[in-house]
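Hi P.,

Sorry for the delay on this. The queue was packed all week, but I finally got your sequence through. Input first:
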Amino acid sequence: MNSRNTINQAKRVVVKVGSAILTDNGRGLDKNAISSLVVQMAAIRHSGVELVLVSSGAVAAGMTRLGWTERPRALHDLQAAAAVGQMGLIQSYESEFQHFGLHTAQVLLGHDDISARDRYLNARSTLTTLLGLGVIPVVNENDTVVTEEIRFGDNDTLAALVANLVDADLLVILTDQDGLFDSDPRTNTQARLLTETKANDESLMGMAGDGGRLGRGGMITKVKAAQLAARSGTHTVIAGGNVTDVLPRILSGESVGSLLVADQQPLAARKQWLAGLMKTNGVVHLDDGAVKVLKGSGRSLLPVGVKALTGSFARGDVVSCVDSSGVEVARGMINYNSDEALKIIGISSDQIEQILGYQGDKELIHRDNLIVEI
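Then the structure:
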């Protein structure tokens, strides 16, 4: 197995940077480390690769500003530290990326933004729009308002979910270790670096260690993140953030860190996930032309190809698409609720704004959220 030669073909990459890389041993943000990483990310972006940055460090930076030496346990203290630290973190990224003519956007996500299908579509749309504009989204958990019961738990998990969200080809997790070892290298000098393995290898969990003082995520969370990313076909590389030119070297296919390989390509995995959503909330009745287009070209479903609707559904619900005989030919996540969709079926997409009073998605169901021939 050698999948390194496919990494240099990646077109969309999520990079997660841990607190240990971004903070000066607990003494605030390490501006030199941030500058070095931005140089690398800017080079990748200018090469044509779309990039999403998931950055830890807000809590650690806030702790330093507040004079705290130990990570607090109380949720309200963590939220206060995150609120204070997020300001400095984003300012650092913004100023560094501007040196290379690149714009950044702060995106704070909560559990509901990904678990609720309507907000999932909104988050996905926002991120993909930013990427299309050449902007680098800087993502973090919305720590200032999240509750303990619904938090992601660590930014490794968040990064994997973002990779799912944007159909990333590659997730890179930068940490203070050189990668995933078969035992803890801090206590075993004979520990061996795993250069490449399958993300779903059951033995990996037994090799992972605990988290450090400043961060929540240890190697266990990184392995779990790689397994989560693999569900949508995203490969993961776990590597040392302090390694010279680590990101360009990974993207060139060089054997740096540990590559955890997904078993299938992103689009195929996403279609499989959609197919598994057996419960549908409505029926979309297609005309013969729309059926032919969906079956023959794999394009999105536009309002003009729909004759009628059955049932009540919300934006983001999964609906069944049937032909004139009532046979299901496709299934997907719809971009409008049933009341809105009823107003625009059968019309051209350029009339949507005039009818609804706002310009929504031109597709009733985007091809990435549509599976044909159930």
